[in-house]
Each structure stands twice: as structure tokens, then as C-alpha cells.
Amino acid sequence: MRRLMAAALAGLLAMGTAAAQDVKVGVLYPIKTMLGQQGRNGAELAAQMINADGGVLPGRPLRLIVYDDNYQPADAVSAARRLLAEDKVPVIVGGINTAVSLGITQVARQSGAMFLAAVTKAPQVTEYDRAFRFNPLVSTDGEVFNQYLKDRIKPQRMAVVVENGDYGRSIIANMKAAFGNAVVATELYEILKQTDFSTLASRVKSANPDVVCMAFSAPEQGGSLLRTLAEAGVKARRCILPGSVTPALVQVAGPAAEGAFTLDIWAPTMNTETNRKFVAAYEARYKAPPGKVDFLGFESMWVLGQAIRAAGTATDTARIAATLRQGTWDSPRGPLKFPGNQATSDKWVALEVRDGKIVVSD
Amino acid sequence: MTDALLQQLLNGLSIGFGYALIALGLTLAFGVLHIINFGHGEVVMLGALTVVMAGKLGLPYIVAVPLAMLVGVLAGWVFDALAVSPLLGRPEGRTDILLTTFAMGVLFNQAVLSVWGPAPARVDGLQGRLELAGVGLSSQRFFVIAASIAALAALDLLARRTRFGVEMRAVAQGEHAARVVGIAVKSVGTRAFLLAAAVGGLGGALLAPITSYSPMLGQAVLIKAFVIVVLGGLGSAGGAVVCALGVGVIEAMLGLVLEEGLAAACVYSLMLLVLLLRPQGLAGAVR
Fold first, then answer.
1. CATH number of the domain where residue B32 is located
2. A347 inside domain
């Protein structure tokens, strides 16, 4: 942690900014992991673009202070306390897993700070009126996705393959409720521990489904799963639940990802002006296409910049929160509103993997 | 139904041979040096990383496999020099080695994370699929089986027919007696450790196309390998191989009727039973 701070300090010195004028924002991600790195990349890119455009308040650029939450609520709480007490930031942005997000919400509530929950889907976050969630709830995902399946794909025999945990089991319950007897097989695999999917693939094959629905949080597992299904000769259409179709998945799965489809709030190929700017700047800076978490990391910081500008204050968090709730904001996924502190856009996109790329399928 | 059974038997064997290679490295180090290498999973991970890197450089997979063994040996050498050899002579050294090898494993893992990042990667391996009467297996899985059998045969030859092999078995049977008859126990131990690391690197290279590479790969494979080594009897190479195949096949067969998680729980229950009823392991007595 000390090295991290030293590195952050060195970075600041290198930038040679007038520190007193900066608007400091706290950023918490598990920065040693891939998803955490993506969230941070997105946030830093947004800050860079905001600052290139004159900062948030007249003559005052954003300055991010990034700490590691290590996916651990204890680490997150102490880092959040330090951000609020020592670094004196008014706003914390980040949080991937539920436990960490709830910890940050708690600390923010105690000192009246603002929290923009960039990636988590935890429903409890928005119980605090200065906390905002950017990713949709699992239940929202489910409603939108099931409707899409019913309208467009019309599955007759579905196999559901998900990780063994709260998230996976809730998906199975949801799918069974929505599709009843059309769900012919449900399979659970162990998160991160399972390295071989051949048995699972054989079982899916013997259930003879026309659609296989999958969800996974680790792209290496998702990739292996898709490859093993292809290897076993499963011909069913591959449907992947929102959030898991990422460049990393396509990279790991290779040709086995072809034709896999999903529905999501955003795609790198979405045709808005801000998205084109975001994707181009991301690729220029990181030499790779952005994924979903990069996008959420970017969006949360990008919207915060606009909200601070509109509220005309970087310290009055009640006013920033009220401004955010009332306005309509620019995001790569289109105009964004925050009813009940939940980021909401009108448009979901249907995505498909074609020729190794994630494209909008409509 | 027979098709499904046959298919699962094949799947189980290919998984089992993968387990065998990982378990063999562990059991070799235990058999000769009487140490448990908690960092062995990271050696496996480095083997997998080697074939990823070699693929990026345009080397064919077949060439990358021996390279992965070489990287395994290099990693094993670092492990031995820093975490094993210096502690072997101490009274409680072998207990401390549990911790030092664990620490080295964490160091290697963090080094990989900070240099190459946490991103997983695909390894293409051998392409194609061999099929007979509705039952089939990918070429890569057949290659895992064939290469494992070849490696096991080579190890067996080495142990029986070479001077090093005989010395290694002598040290395994009795370190003191081996020293009395003039065997350089320390050097034999080091070479056995490097051999174990080479097998670990090979295991990583063979499994990577099936599991995909990820820096977490080492931790994922290590636990199962430990179960197998305990089932087979610590230090028994034959026991480890037989149990690895057994666990692979049992898991696959149970998978036909149970959820995967339950199938895995059955294997762990088996380990508990073996430890309670036959603590020397299933093959412990025949060593």
C-alpha cells in the first residue's frame, strides 16, 4: 500500500498539477485484479478527458486518488475512511462486489459523502440518498432479457449453466419462473475452482437443448466452458446473460464464442458521439478495446464530472446528489437518468459475437 | 446410455491424466525429500504461461511444451535455492518448508500478476477431434493422455534403469542408509526436486489448452492434486497415478447423475474416509 501511495505521489509530481486547486475524488477498486484494473482504467480516462476539456469547475481539474479494496470489505472500509478523513474527498467512485459496495456505502453515509457505485448490482446501495448505482439490478437484467428471449429467440428446450453461488442460483430460479418446463437442464459449476467442463458439457448435450443460457464472472471459465461445449458437439444457440460478453471472454473462447448473443446496456460499437469518443480515446491510451467494466468505470466518472459542473460545487454533496437525481446526463450509452438513484437508459442493445468481434446484432 | 458412459470414461481419463501429472510432481518431492511443496501450483501456472507466451511469439504448441518443462526447471531451481535447500538441514526444517514454499508461490504469483497482469488467455493446443461410434475426444485431450503416459513411462524407466533413479529410490527409502553407502543425498534431492518441477511445467503446458491460462490456475489445480496424493499415499508415484485416474473417472461418472458440486464433495468425502481408515493411503503399503 505504501508503494502504491508512493507511485501515486510520483505520478502526481510528474503531472505537475497545482494541487490546491484540484477537485479530489476517491476511487476504490480491487486494482490488482483484471476487473479492478478495468474500472480504474475507465475512471482515469474519464478524468483525463474531463480535464482536457477544462476540468470540473473553472480552472479546477479532477484529481483521482486510487486505493485498493482488494475485494475485501475490511480493506474497502479502511480505505474509504482514509479517503474521507485524510484525503478529504467529497465523493468515492468504484466498488465491484456487493460486500465492498455495502461497506463503502456505510462509511459514506456516516460522513455525508457521496458514493457512485460503478459496477456492483447490490440493491441495498441506493438506500442511502447520496449513493448512486450505475449497473442495473439482476432483477432488471432478468426482466429485460427474458422478454427478449421470449420475443426473439423463442426457446423450446433451455439448458441453464451458471456458477454455484447466490448469483447463479438466483438466475436458475428466475429462468424456471419465466420459462417453466422449457428449462430442461440446470447445471452449476464451481467459481474459479473448476477447470474442466467436459462432464458438464456431456450432460448438456444429453439434455438436447436448443438454447444454452450461461452466466459467469471469470472469463477464463466462460471461455473454457464455451470451448468445451463446442468440443462436445453441442449445437444449441449460446445465450449469455448480461455483463459476461467481454473482449476477454471472446479472446479466451476463440472461435467457440461465434454466434453467442447477449443483451446489455452498452457495447463498444454503440453509435453515440460520446461512445465513439470514449472508445477511440480508450484504444489510444490502453491499446485494447474497452470492456463492460472499463465502460462503467468511465461512465461513473464522466457523469460525476458533469454533475459537479452543473451543481457548481465540489464540496456540497447534498447539492451534487440532488442535481444528479434531477438531470439528464450524457453517457456513451445515451442519455442517462437517475430515478431512485439508479442509472437508467432507454436503450438496451442486442449483441452478438461475429468474426471474433462483439457487434450490435440489430 | 452406454455411449454416455463411454464418453464419460474417456472424459474422466483425460481429466485424470491431467491430475496425475500435477500430483506426480508433489509426490516426487515428498517421496525423495519428504517435503510438501505448497508452491507447486505456481510452477504449473508458469508452465501454462510459457505456452501462452510461446504462442504469442509464433512458436508451435508442440515446441512450447518442452520449453514449459524448461521454465518449470528454472522455477524449481529458484524454489530449491531459496525455499527448500537452506532449510533441509534444520531440525524443524521440513515443517518450515510448508511455509517457505507457500511464500515463494505467492511471490511467483504476484510477480506474474505485476508483469503480465491478471488477464486470462486462450491456448489453442492441438486442433481437431477424434471420433468413433458417437464417442469422441478432442485431439488435445488425446494428446494429454498420450503425453502423460509417455512421461510416466519415462519417469519409470528413469527410476529403474538409471543411476540417478536408483539413487533417488535409495534416498527415498532411507536417507541415512543412502548417505552411508556414499550417495550424495543433497544433490540427489535437488535433482529430484527439479525433476518434479519439470513434470509440473509439463502439466501446465498440457492442461492450458483445456482449462485456459489464468494466473489463478495454480491454486485451482493444487487442491485436487493434494487430495489425490493423500489418497494414493504420500510419496507413492504409482498410488498417485492410479488415484488420479480413479478420481477423474469417478468425478466424470458421478457427474452423470449428480450436480458437479456434489460430485466433487463425494471425492473429498472419499479422502476423509481414506484418512480415517487407511491413513497410509490406498497404495501406501506397496511403496
1. 1.10.3470
2. no
